[in-house]
What we know:
By secondary structure, the chain is an alpha+beta fold. The protein contains 13 helices and 15 strands. The longest helix is centred in the last third of the chain and has 18 residues, at 344-361.
Amino acid sequence: MPLRTYIRxxxxxxxxxxxxxxxxxxxxxxxxxxxxxxxxxxxxxxERAGREVRRFTFQDVATRAVDIHDSAxxxxxxxxxxxxxxxxxxxxxxxxxxxxxIPSFDLLMCHENKGYQELxxxxxxxxxxxxxxxxxxxxxxGLDMSFxxxxxxxxxxxxxxxxxxxxxxxxxxxxxxxxxxxGILARCDLIRRKYFRRPRTYxxxxxxxxxxxxLQYREFVVPRRRLVxxxxxxxxxxxxxVLAMGDRYFVMRRRVVSGDFRASGTxxxxxxxxxxxxxxxxxxxxxxKVDAPFLSMDICPHxxxxxxxxxxxxxxxxxxLKRGRGCFMRAGERWQFTAGVGDxxxxxxxxxxxxxxxxxxxxx
Length: 364
């Protein structure tokens, strides 16, 4: 074995896994966002595989109660906006050093953010539908895309915030309805600035006019909502949720309600082991480009192939694993189905250990 590879593998063998949770050991990764994963069980599975585990909270890091370096850091996401921002700050801090983040900071940015998902998807070459990430309804109206179009808020889930625009008028109506409303105080101030201010001049700002100042101020205070505008697939009857846990793939089919176009949120699941092999090949190829131990993917038929609609590296639904009949694994050039209901903590621990081993075996 080359010396550099040996040193790298020895370092990997000694690298501890640091698990960061919210207060009380809360780790959001179950069907309900307010119910914690059994992080103690997960840690015991990792320790049985020979990896040292250390547990801290995000507050421990923020208050400098601990100094984390030269570690693999596995951390929780959150559905609570304020907590999510706090976690983002802490994880960004840990990213500036010698730590391996699991998931990566990019994948944290993708969480509950369909806009950043689009940027990340294009960067990694993940096949998807034609789409655009825009900052407000005006940008959406100016897009050169063929109707009908799917309009999504960046933070919706379970089909919330997903709409179909059949023409440009529809698009403007939907996008305008989604934009936050101006508060009563701000509206009163806008009226005052527009109708009840005397013209003024400033020696240092000869181009100043009260009219121009009003227009600029209105642009500044009127809130906007980011949107993703996406190609529409007519006649879509279902899509697939594929949950990759290391080299194991758990699959469920999500059917579309008659008269609707959204599979997400319908709860019409099929857990049939008769899964198209090209779908598994597509999911495996997509997973390989993301560099994460687990990845939840929404995949739909598109033309002669498949398209990745959305993905999450953590805090994803686990129905495909908990309610499915088993998992698919690649055996040489073929896929093999293994029956049995998976255990979330055990599967995540196994995927984590394999991911760390692969990261340590990469040539220095």
